Please model this.
Amino acid sequence: MQRSEIQEKPNNKTRVSLRYTQATFRRSHRGRANYTWRDCPLNLPKITRYKHSILSLLIILKTQTAWTAGDTTTTLMPHLGRFMLSAAGAGVNTAAGSGIGIFGGDVMQPVYGNDNGFLFTDFMGDGATGNTFLVSPGLGIRQVIKNQIWGAYLFGDNEKVSLGQNFWNISPGIEWMTPHWGVHANGYFPIPQTQVMGDTVFADNLGNYDYVYFVNGTHNQYDALTAPYDVIGNGGDVELAYRFSFHDNLASRAYVGGYYYQPSTASNFTNITHVKNIPGITAGFEQSLNKNLRLSLMNSYDSVNFYTIGVRLQLTLGDDSTIYSDNVHDRLLEPIERHVGIIATGAGTYDQLGYQNLGNALEYNNVFFMAPNGAGNGTYGNPMALSQTSLDTINTQSPNSSRLYFQGGGGAVYAVNSTNTLTKQGLQLYNGQDLYGRTANYTAPATSAERPVISINGDTAGVGVDNGFYIQSGENTFSDLAITASSTNGTTTGIYVITTTEATINVENTSVTGLSRGLYAENNGTDNLTINANNSSFSNNTANPAPGDTFNASGIYASNIAAGTLTINATNSSFNGNMITGIAGDNGNTASGIYANNTGAGSLLINAINSSFNGHANSSSNNNTGASGINAFNTAAGNLTINTTRSTFNGNTNTGTGTAVAGISASNTTTGNLTINATDSQFNQNSSTNAQVNGLYIIDNGGHVNLNLSNSSFNGNTITGPNNGSADGVFINAVNLNMNVTNSTFNGNVSDSKNVGGGFANGLEAVVSGTATITVINSQFNGNQALNAGGGFQAAGLLVFDTVTANTQVSISGSQFNNNLVTGDGANGGATGFNIYHTSSNTMSIVVTNSQFNGSSASGNGNAGAAGLYAATGVMSRRI
Model:
């Protein structure tokens, strides 16, 4: 308080002496001025002499009573409160990987108190792009005691967690703050801790086979029946923070913390699937940018989300904590630190999927047990042998739905030969007969070397069979098996499907290798035939045809004959190393991962996801052969579509006298539509010594081609040896073309003619005779080389050749066409970044922006030239 002293003198004359405190100004949370006082003397004149000084004194006294430090007068709504908005982004370092945006707000309103402390309400909430949210109303108290803030609060959290369930949490907390330090500790107690979230499921469908058992003399399988629950748990967190300033009195805050959540251990959740306790640590840094903006960097690590990082921007109104000071009153409206380390969700806690064991129950009553030396009726303890007689019996007892369990465990071989099949077609499977490789005790799927082997004795010299299994309709599954051949006549097929009605073939966790064709599928009707290959291998199949024969070595060979739809879905599977050897026939023989032909008005669809089509080889001596990852034909008015995602088509080779090598070879011979979409895929290092080689090869003779290439590579495809062949990353010859290329590379393709003949080496070559639209964005066409050419030759990053009445539009932006090279003494060649041969009578439109055409060169004694962009004759509209 200001102090004044009135001293009585002996002469009874009064002199007023005022001692007051001069002030340094600051704003309080109520928006009023306060003063920090320090005493100094001030002698005023006598009031009898200076009457106007009385008025000045009254003003000073009035001011002193209205603005006091730490006003202890308690009132309703002692402050206007604080309002905050935030926006954050977070990324999670898990196997799947994820990133989300989080948007939130927080309002704190003091309801009763004074400058030294108050009761308050707080309402905070978050919402995330992952469809999680948090709504938290709360009550609390903060009190300043000796320049320290002590606080306690209680919140009710309503949250929607990552698995889509809603939970309520009771969340108490305490806090302590000084001008520099701060500690927050919180507890979280969900009510309840679990929420049921779906239908019951047996434990083996969750990958847990500990509860599977069988009963002797029956076809029954029993397992633990479980119910799925969204599981959270009691938890808590603590944060220790240090506050300081290093620039313009803007507050900085560095913090470390930890959190721990213990999911419910009731209901056997951890016995079926591993629901973890969640211990975690966190650290971060927060920097005030000005009085109203804060930027935060956050990081945490725990046993569920592993490393999580985030960045957050906060807009705050009504809070002085962004400005550093030594007075703790400035922190009274600072946001409460809760849900410490929980970064990668809009909810307040992390949840997990748990399963409650409801007890054992009958799962299947149609299991037939098979053994290599079985001689029984197929019940548990009395297995049967693999034979056509057994399959017939199973179909009689359990038509349209049966599970055949093949005993594995290592060394289990099931022969398919002329002694246990009724025809040379192989073993005929009925609709719904599903084959499963199992462990030696049948309780779990066989893996790796435990898989039972189906060994096919191919027909040689009239002895044996043509196929392992023969299917005419319906649904069949092959799971956890190894299908191979003990001998092959060059056409031996593991699974042979020929149907006129709807059929679905599933091949899962199975290897189909060492044959001529892993799977042959033919759709002769108007219905759908679907082949699903998941986590399987169709590799190392070989054909050695005699002269005049037409054999193909392929993982899958498929034909769509009529107006139906044939779909091949290859997911996480391999189609590698299939091979043609010997003297091939005259009608074309191909080594390929998938060979598919659409000869009718229907549709052929091939989807390759996370799969490989590599290393196919053709060493035969016929001119009509090739090697491709996928070789597909559309020979009628139907539709052919190939979609590849994160797949590889690399290292396919031709060392014989064949015609072509390609990662994908696709042909549209009539008026149909051909569509290829390649995303995050590779078409690299395909090679030949005598024939054309391409990462992607497309021929269209009258239809329409749609080509979309994104984030893919077509690099290092090479042809060497005396030839007139070409090595292109992509080669297209089409009537009508719509092509979009984005963020892809077409680099380092090489044609080396060894001074005999000529050859092309282009990143991408497109020849069109109809309407063409070509768009190239942020791609590279560099370092393609035509070497040692004895005849005509060409090396270009991008070559466009439009003929006849073509109407072509080319748009290029942000791309590179550099360092393409030709050498040799041949004539009529050149090295160019972008080469245009325009012979059409129509105008070609070319628009190029922000692109490079540098360093291409030509050398030798021939008539060769070099240019960044070269345009031959014709009418052309260019804008560079």
About this structure: The radius of gyration is 39 Å. Confidence is low (pLDDT under 50) at residues 1-69. The chain is about 5% helix and 55% strand. The longest helix spans residues 52-66.
